Amino acid sequence: MIHLYKKEIYAVFGNPIHHSKSPKIHNFFFKLYNFKKKYIKICASKNFFLDEITLFFKKGGKGANITLPFKEKIFSLCNNITKRATIAGSINTLKKCNDGKIIGDNTDGIGFLSDLLFHNIIKKNFNLLIIGAGGASRGIIYPLLKFGCNIFITNRTFKKAQILSKEFSKFGNIESVFYKNLRGINFDLIINSTSASISNELPLISYNIIKKKTICYDMFYMNKKTSFMSFCEFYGSKNVYNGIGMLIHQAAHSFFLWNKIFPDIKKTIKYLFK
Ligand code: NDP
To answer: Mind listing the pLDDT tens digit for each residue in 156-205?
Structure first.
């Protein structure tokens, strides 16, 4: 085996990847614990990403995060897949073990739930609306159902919402609803798990479902308010969040898989927002 990296190297693979804050978070975790390790971002090519990730591990890479659009396409690279990644059908974390085997895991779901608990914005029996039916939705549905929430899921391409609701119905209450049929349902928490905010767009849901008490969460994050956050605030929501907390929590769970230490979340938030 060739080991070209001088330090223990970790990386996030995605395309696009320039916006990723994962290197900042993980390098801070390493600093917190005095680890001589480094975390970088790699823009993987859409056709050859499996080869690129394989090469990364051959060169001595120890762990990786996988983001859009590769999360559902990485299974063939793994020797072992955790239960939560198998159920999600989506992998966001890879770990290379000492015997050379690669474990595939999904920390998005647990990271998302951890952030909701951190902000105290989730309760058992909450009615949740998930907008979007891509890899990120796949990751969060199982932990939310296990927590005891009722899920309504909608998507621009409705068929994909139907497939997810069918697939996850064995774990709890989940039903797919067309955009146009959302009016009249009372949602405690609306989750935008589409990638629309990346290009400053909005999923075409009706503003009528947003009330003063409705909690609105955009899984996307940027330095200013996302288009979805502004939309929800404009139509009355007083509780609007972006996905930075989810990012920190999912990173912490990945870090735990790699290092067996759960990093200090409060210190990380303080560092990121100083
Ligand atoms: P995918 O590419 O797998 O899925 C994209 C989803 O967005 C699909 O449901 C797609 O609908 C929908 N969509 C895209 N553009 C629009 C639009 N203009 N209007 C309506 N729907 C749209 O992406 P992921 O699921 O992996 O990621 C989704 C979002 O979640 C991204 O913004 C990503 O950054 C964020 N994320 C954040 C994390 C965090 O830690 N904060 C972790 C993981 C993801 P259709 O099926 O019709 O194409």
So the answer is: 999 999 999 999 999 999 999 999 999 999 999 999 999 999 999 999 99
Is the CB of residue 250 below 6 angstroms from any atom belonging to ligand 1? yes
Residues 238 and 253 in one domain: no
Cα separation, 5 vs 256, in Å, equals 22
Report the number of distinct structural domains present in the chain: 2
Angstrom distance (rounded) from CA 235 to CA 238: 9
Residues 6+ apart with CB under 8 A from 167: 89
What is the atom index within ligand 1 of the atom nearest the CA of 112?
A: 40
In a domain, 2, yes or no: no
Q: Is the CB of 217 under 6 A from ligand 1?
A: no
Same domain, 79 and 124: no
pLDDT digits (tens, 9 = 90+) for 226-248: 999 999 999 999 999 999 999 99
Quickly count: other Cβ atoms within 10 Å of residue 71's Cβ.
Answer: 26
pTM, two decimal places:
0.93
Asked if residue 117 and residue 98 are part of one domain, the reply reads no
Could you tell me the residue range of the domain that residue 135 belongs to?
Answer: 110-242
Q: Are residues 145 and 187 in the same domain?
A: yes
Pocket probe mutation, ligand 1, options 19, 105, 194, max atoms within 8 Å of Cβ: 194
